Task: inverse folding
C-alpha cells in the first residue's frame, strides 16, 4: 500500500493511484485470489462490491472485533499489564490508546486493543474510560498486575493520577495490599 495510514482515499476512482487502504487492500487481494477477482470483476461488476464507505467501515469494525476477540482468547485468564497514553487526534478530540502486555508460553506479548475517545483528560475521566474498556473486553481488574503511563501528571500523578486511582480500585477489590 502506497498511502501511509488513510483508510479512505481522496480519489477512489478505478484509475486513481492512491484509493485509500481499504480499496488498495481489496485490489491487492483480488490480484492474489482468482476467486475474489472473478466475484468482484465478472460476477458483480456494478453491484455487491462492498466498497460503499459505510460498508467499508462495517467490515473494518468486524475485523477489529475479531482481532480483539482473538487477543482476549489468547490472553485467557492470564495476568496482564496496561500501557496507556492519551492525546488529541487531528480533529482535536481527546483519545486514550490502550495496549495490553502479558506473557504467553514464556514470551512477552503486547497487543494494541484500541483507542477510546474521552471527553476530558482528567485522571478520574481516564480511569473511568480504562475501567470501561477493560470491562468491554472482558478483562478482569483482578488480573491487572501492572500499569505503564507517560510522565503526564494526570496519568501517573502520585496523589490523584490514573495510576493512583486504579491502585485504589485494586485495593478495594482485595487484589493488592
Result:
Amino acid at each position: 500500500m502506497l498511502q501511509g495510514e488513510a483508510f479512505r482515499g481522496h480519489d477512489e476512482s478505478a484509475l486513481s493511484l492512491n484509493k485509500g487502504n481499504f480499496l488498495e487492500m481489496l485490489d491487492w487481494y483480488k490480484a492474489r485470489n482468482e476467486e475474489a477477482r472473478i466475484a468482484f470483476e465478472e460476477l458483480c461488476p456494478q453491484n455487491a462490491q462492498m466498497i460503499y464507505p459505510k460498508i467499508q467501515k462495517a467490515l473494518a469494525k468486524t475485523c477489529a472485533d475479531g482481532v480483539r476477540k482473538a487477543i482476549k482468547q489468547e490472553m485467557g485468564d492470564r495476568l496482564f499489564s496496561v500501557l496507556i497514553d492519551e492525546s488529541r487526534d487531528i480533529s482535536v478530540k481527546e483519545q486514550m490508546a490502550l495496549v495490553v502486555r502479558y506473557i504467553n508460553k514464556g514470551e512477552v506479548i503486547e497487543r494494541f486493543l484500541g483507542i477510546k475517545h474521552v471527553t476530558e483528560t482528567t485522571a478520574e475521566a481516564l480511569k473511568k474510560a480504562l475501567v470501561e474498556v477493560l470491562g468491554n473486553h472482558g478483562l478482569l481488574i483482578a488480573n491487572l498486575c501492572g500499569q505503564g503511563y507517560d510522565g503526564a501528571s494526570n496519568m501517573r500523578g502520585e496523589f490523584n493520577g490514573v495510576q493512583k486511582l486504579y491502585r485504589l480500585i485494586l485495593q478495594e477489590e482485595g487484589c493488592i495490599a
About this structure: Residues 53-75 form the longest helix (23 residues). The CA atoms of residues 142 and 174 lie 8 Å apart. DSSP finds six helices and four strands in the chain. The longest strand covers residues 94-104.
